[in-house]
Structures are given as structure tokens and as C-alpha cells.
Amino acid sequence: MRCTIRRLLIAAALLIAALPPLAAYAADLPALVRGLGVSNYDELDKAIAKLAETGDPAVAPVLEALQAGDLNLRKSDGAVVVAKRAGSGWDLFDPLTGAALGPAERSAVERIRINNALRRSLGAALGALTLMSPDPAVRRSAAEAVFKSRDPAGIEILDRAIAKETDAGIRTAMQRARAAAVLNTDAPEAEKLAAIEIIAARGDRDGLGLLNTVVNATAPDAVKAAAREAIGAIEHRLALWAAAQNLWYGLSLGSVLLLAAIGLAVTFGVMGVINMAHGEMVMIGAYSTFMVQEMFRAYAPGLFDLSILVALPVAFVVAGGIGIIIERGIIRWLYGRPLETLLATWGLSLMLQQAVRSLFGPSNREVGAPSWMSGAFELGGLTITYGRLWIVVFAFAVFAALLVALRRTSFGLQIRAVTQNRRMASAMGIRTPQVDALTFGLGSGIAGLAGVALSQIDNVSPNLGQGYIIDSFMVVVFGGVGNLWGTLVGALTLGTINKFLEPYAGAVLGKILVLIFIILFIQRRPRGLFALRGRAVEA
Amino acid sequence: MLTRFLLAGLDTKAWVLLSVLAVLAVAVPFMALAVPPTSPWSLSMLTVTLLGKYFCYALLALSLDLVWGYCGILSLGHGAFFALGGYAMGMYLMRQIGSRGVYGNAELPDFMVFLNWKELPWYWHGFDMFPFAALMVVLIPGVLAFAFGWFAFRSRVTGVYLSIITQAMTFALLLAFFRNDMGFGGNNGLTDFKEILGYDIQAPATRAGLFVATVVALAIGYILASAVVSSKYGKVLVAVRDAESRVRFLGYDVEKVKLFAWTLSACMAGVAGALYVPQVGIINPSEFSPAASIEAVIWVAVGGRGTLAGAVLGAVIVNYGKTWFTGVLPEVWLFALGGLFVLVTLFLPKGILGLAGDLRQRLAARRSRAAAGSNAAKEATAP
């Protein structure tokens, strides 16, 4: 295949070399334009071809005018002019420079007529001109246009354009366009086979459509077989990209679940406290973001891009502080009574929701995205938005930070000591009530951080938290209580399963299936994926 | 013998409650229908319906108390059984509309015509007959509870984990019933009912009849539940609640003990839902929402778990409070409800009835101490 391309390139290069240098033509442009002033269609066709051969972008407006029927012959001197209607007469312009040539009588000019054959060659010539345009974007879209139209007239021009092209990406696009055009001709079999290979390398839906037309059209068997094979290859490739896309969506959803659940993994998993108000901590984080952004809008609109970064510590402190108050005020009286804790925190969540509704109103609040979080980029067949990418990065960063905090700091050591053996820890001089309060504050603060991230992708309303509470509990229970790694694996697994089910079952049914899966899973492993072993289990 | 078994479980508390219910069953229809509207003793139809609704909730609370108060299973998904019973009744009522719907299709309910369905889904067949529908009201929640409990109890899913998966169950059902393809009216649910057993559903006499039916159902449910908990089986049930492992080691089949109470409770909840729907006039997926189920838990907690009568009392009190607050101070209702959750769990772990019991005990203790004290004084002064 590479050999074929090289041969093509050499042929194209020779063709270019055989042509006189373009600069020589440029000088002759006015003369060539004058050559359009003929009434014989054949001669006009030749004149158009000559103009097109110059490859000069200045020719494009002339040909466009001819296509639109604006090009006229001035009877007085045989000059070719553009005529625009002005009152009862015409305003004349120079077709090349666009300079005004003054008014003229109605009868002073005669329109240069074209027929359908000429229209076709005009289109090809214009396509060729854009293919030679100095602007890379124009060249690329011209190549795409030829790929779509599959006009055989474009082959020759493409050959020249390919030889001249310096941008590798655009050259590939041109080669593909050429291949598409070749498949539309009755070119020899070998050439068609080469073309199919080039199209197959393109490997997207457009290529698939093209090859399907080849299979359905009359063509030699070898060509058809090659096209079928190429179709198979493309479909395989597309399926792979679709799977990759699903994987990305799954990762994205999984990281959202991870963010929502990771604070719960601390309060529920480490402390054994069922905090039904966890979702409201997330909501408070989101509203903190809103407040911070309002401040930035009011006092420093220029620094708006930094508002999210400022919101992170604010949300952590606000949600964490409220968490500590809750722990000191309510939860510490209910240790060892998990079901009562569940009810009390549920009541608390109702009160927090109503408080936010009274303060901020029931409607959604607008939280803006900083510029570095908006937009998207392409990665192969994937479209990845920056917002989602940052959330994935952020979720993993929070997870890592929490892991380090629990494993490597003295505070983490105290938390683990109290979790494993409260009385022994107390005997060793650890102030267990203080550790309890701070641990609960840590879990709530992380929920607040999640709120900052979720404010970017969800509606900031008093009901924000409710949507996440059940999902987060599912993640923690699925992953195994008391195990942060279990939470990570649980979140990513559930996110991915959900996204892979969605194309087949739809979003809602997919979610129902995931819930049923979890219910059944808990029957098999009542303590989750990564169950703690030993005495702590029964406590 | 059966009568003796049923009546054996009734204590003073129960007789008081049953007498109140009996009085209401006679007085409320009389006051609503026979007393002229100008009289201060007259009740509006609205009040009758509202009372009927409260008693439906009371039956739901009763069923929840049976599993939570006596078996230690905190169900956060009892609303699902309530709603399933309600949907079964709703399907019967939909079929009764017949050709009086907006589209006038004798066979298909309006929403199916709207969705361009050509024929009735298989699971809608039979619901035009009341006995079948009545059977389904009990059977569907019962079968679901049996299957769910069979798996969960056998795998020894207990405590918080069980609560969370009951919540997952009702959440999954909520999502499922929101789907139009399920054939239960999607978001809008089932509504616009015309008649029940041939009686106009809007007519005052029908409404009064439904109220009486609800009170009777509540009374039967109460008698049944108290018979169950005061029987030998009931003792085992309480033992399972307090020390599950020990009961298992003593040779009892703990799974079966729990499964019976759990399934019975789901059936009762289904009946409550079925009585609720004709009175309220609509059933939609929001009844499946986890929040609704948790609200039912607080009724039991407020009244006092493990007392049966407390569940009935709690349901009526909290729902009356809800009606009053949402009418007068709608913003405050969630604060009040939330505060109730917190206060009851912190300060009233045994609920109102438990508090009353505590007070009585303390009073009795003081009296006996006082008596003992005066006796001692007498003895001391005696020569």
C-alpha cells in the first residue's frame, strides 16, 4: 500500500514538475480572465481549466461570479466584468480586483452563459482552488468536501494538492478524499483496492458509509470483497472506540460516585455512623461554591477563574464545621444505636434542606464554570470535556489525600486507633471524643469538597444532596464498610456497569438493574466486596 | 378457639383503642351523612376522607411496628408494599372506568390509549374483577416481601445493611414505576377513578363506607398483630430482636420466624395502600419514594415502637400535625418533621406511649417508696 501511495506521489510530483511555474501564470491572470469572454462552451471550458490551473486564490471570486451568472462581457472593449444591477442599468466591477469600473447601460454588457457541464467543471475548479488555498483550515475542509462529494473531477487536482501539501494531517485527508473519488470512477482494480485500504485506515462512520455504497454498487468481486473486509475492520474499530467512550463515561460517573461516597466512607465506614444528612453536606459544599462565586462576581470579576480554587477550602471548612456541630450536638449521644442515628440524621437532613430553601429559595442557583474547565478535546474517537476530566482528576486527588491523611499523619493514626479499639486508645491517652468529632468533621468536609465539584455538573438546588445519598450508600456498602479501597473499586465498578448497561437498557432501567444487582450482591457478600475480617466485624 | 387466640392478645390499651375505633366507625358516618350541615356536630366529607387517610397510614405504621418493634428489622422500604397494594387497587379502579375515560376506550385505560398501545398488557388482565384485585392487594406485596426476605434473611443480612437494601428496593421500584413502558401510567400514576363495586366513588355514602372499611381493617389488623405478638411465636420474635444468635443456637429457625412477620407485615401494608387509593383518588410513583417510607418510620418512633397502639397513635398525631402545619405554616413543616426525628430519637426513644409508661412506673415507684417510707417511720416510732 505504501508503495502505491509513493508511486502516486511520484506521479503527482512529475506532473507538477512538468507544469510551468505558477508565478509565470500569475502575471497573466488578467489575460486569462479575458479569455473567458467567449460564447462557445468548449472554449469557455478550456479557459476555465486554464484559470484553474494557475492555482491562484485570486481566481476563485472570478469563477464564483461566473457560477452565479454575474460575469458579463463588455461589448465596447471585450473586457470581462462583474455586473451588478443598479437602478435601470449596471454597476461594473473588475472580477479580479473587485475595483469599481463605473456604471453602464443595460445593453452595454452581455452575460456569459454557462451550461450544466460547465457548472460541473466550475465546481471542480473551485474545489481545486480551495485545495491549494494558503489557509490550512480551508484546505482541510475542501478535502472533506471532496470526500463527501466523491467527484472524480477532483482526482487530478488532489494529486497536485497532495504533492504540494506540507501538513501531514491535511495530506492524509486529501489522500482519503482522492481514494473516495477513485472509488467513484471505473479505475483499474488495483487502484481501487489501494483506495479501499486508504479509506479503511480512516476508520470512521463516513468511511463506513462510503464502503457500503461500494459494496452495493457494481464493482469487481475482488473490490467488493476488499470493501467488505474493510467494513469489518472499521466496525471493529468503531466498536472499540464506543467501548472506550463507555469506559470513559463510566470512569466519569464512577468518579462522581467516588466523590459523593468518599466522605461517607469515613463517617460510615470508619466510624460506623449512618449519616443520612451526608447528601446535605454535599449540598452545603455546592452552596458554598455559589456564595464564593457571588463574592468574586461582586468584588473581583477578573479573577473569576480562581473562584473554584477558593471555594474548595471554604466548602471544606463550612461543611466540616457543620459536621462537627452535628457530631457534638446529636450523634455522640447515639453511638452504638445505628438505626436511631439513621433516623436522627434523616431528620437533620430535612431541616438542613428546608433551611437552605428558606435562605436561598427553592430554585436552582447558577454556578459558573471557570474557563479552564469548559470546552472539550478529541482523543482518537473520544470527545472528552475538560469539566469531566477535572472532576476525575479531583476525585482521585481527594482519594489519595484522604489515604495519606489516614495512613501517614498522627491524626490518621488516632482515627484508626479509636476505630480499632476505643478503650485501648483512650487508655493510651487519645482523646476519643475529640477524635470522633474531628473524624466526623473530616467526612463532612470531604462531602463539602464533593459539593464544589458536583456544582459544576449538577443543579445547585436544596434537593442536590438527596440525589446522591442512596447512590453513595450503595457504593460504600458494595465496596465494603471500613475500607477506602473498597469504596474506590465500588464507585468505579458501579459507574462503569451503569454506563455499559445504559446503551442496551436505557438510563433508568440501567439504574434499576444496578440496584437489583447490589441487592443480590449483598445477599452473597453481606459485608461488601472487601470485607473487614476479625473481631471488628461483629462490633 | 380462634376467637380466644385472637382475643387473648388484647390488653387494656388495646380495648381502649378498639372502643375508640368502634365509636368512630359509627359516629363519623352518622355525623357526616345524617347530621344536617348547619349543625356544629356535622362533619364535612373532606374531614371524613382525611380521617380515612390517617387510619390508612395508621395501618401502615402498625405493619411497620410489627417488624421494627417486635423483630428489630428497620424497614426503610415499607412504602413500597403500601404502594404496591395501592397500585393493585388502582388497577381495579382503572378498569372500572370503562368507556367513561377521556378517550372512551372500553378496554384500555386512558394513558395506554395516549401511548398508542393496542391491547391490554397481560398483567392487567383479571383486574376488572374485584375479588381478583383484592387477592392481588395482599398477594403482590406478600410475594415480593417473601422473596426479598427469603434471600435477605437466609444470607443473614441484618441491621443497617438490611435497612439500606430495603431502601434500595423501594428506590428501584420508584424508578421502575416512573417509566411509561411499565404500563402503570408512568409519572402520573393511576387516577380519575369513577366507581368502586358499582358505587360512585365521589358520593358521600361511598366515602363514609370507605372510611368504615378502613377503620374495620385497622381494627382487624390490630387484633391480628396483637394476637401474633402475644402468642408463643411472638415471644420468639421478640427474642430474635434482642439476641438473634442466641435464639439460633437454641435451635429455632430464625429465618422462618423473621420471614413470617416480615411477609405478614407487607400484606398489611398492601391492604393499607389499597384502602388509601380510593379515598385519595390517585396513586403515583411518589408513594415509592424512600422519603415516604422513612416518614412512616417516624410515626412509629413518635408513638412508641413495640407497642402497636403507639404506632396507630403516632401515625394519626404526626399526620394531623402535617395537615395543620402545611395549611398554616408550610415552610415550618419540614423543620417540625426533622426536629421530631431528632428529638424523638434523642429524648423519647420509647415514644409517647413509652414516656407515659415510664411516668406511670416512676409514679408508682415513688408512691411505693413513700408508702415504704411512712411504714418505716411508723416502725421506727413504734416502741
Automatic annotation (TrEMBL), chain A:
UniProt KW keywords: Amino-acid transport, Cell membrane, Membrane, Signal, Transmembrane, Transmembrane helix, Transport
Signal peptide boundaries: 1-26
Annotated localization: Cell membrane
CDD domains for the chain: TM_PBP1_LivH_like (cd06582)
A Pfam family it matches: BPD_transp_2
Topology term for the membrane: Multi-pass membrane protein
Record has Oxidoreductase as a keyword: no
Bilayer-crossing regions: 247-274, 306-326, 338-356, 389-406, 473-497, 503-522
UniProt cross-references to InterPro entries, sorted A to Z: ABC_transp_permease, ABC_UrtB_bac, BCAA_transport_permease
UniProt entry tagged with the keyword Transmembrane: yes
PANTHER family named in the record: ABC TRANSPORTER PERMEASE PROTEIN (PTHR11795:SF447), BRANCHED-CHAIN AMINO ACID TRANSPORT SYSTEM PERMEASE PROTEIN LIVH (PTHR11795)
Family: Belongs to the binding-protein-dependent transport system permease family. LivHM subfamily.
Name listed for the protein in its UniProt record: Urea ABC transporter permease subunit UrtB
Lineage: Bacteria, Pseudomonadati, Pseudomonadota, Alphaproteobacteria, Rhodospirillales
Gene from which the chain derives: urtB
From TrEMBL, chain B:
Localization (cell): Cell membrane
Statement: the UniProt record of this protein carries the keyword Membrane: yes
Keyword flag Cell membrane: yes
Mode of membrane association: Multi-pass membrane protein
Keyword annotations: Cell membrane, Membrane, Transmembrane, Transmembrane helix
Membrane-spanning ranges: 14-34, 41-61, 67-90, 132-153, 159-178, 208-229, 259-277, 297-320, 332-357
Pfam families in alphabetical order: BPD_transp_2 (PF02653)
PANTHER family reported in the protein's UniProt record: HIGH-AFFINITY BRANCHED-CHAIN AMINO ACID TRANSPORT SYSTEM PERMEASE (PTHR30482), SLR1201 PROTEIN (PTHR30482:SF4)
Protein name: Urea ABC transporter permease subunit UrtC
Organism: Azospirillum oleiclasticum
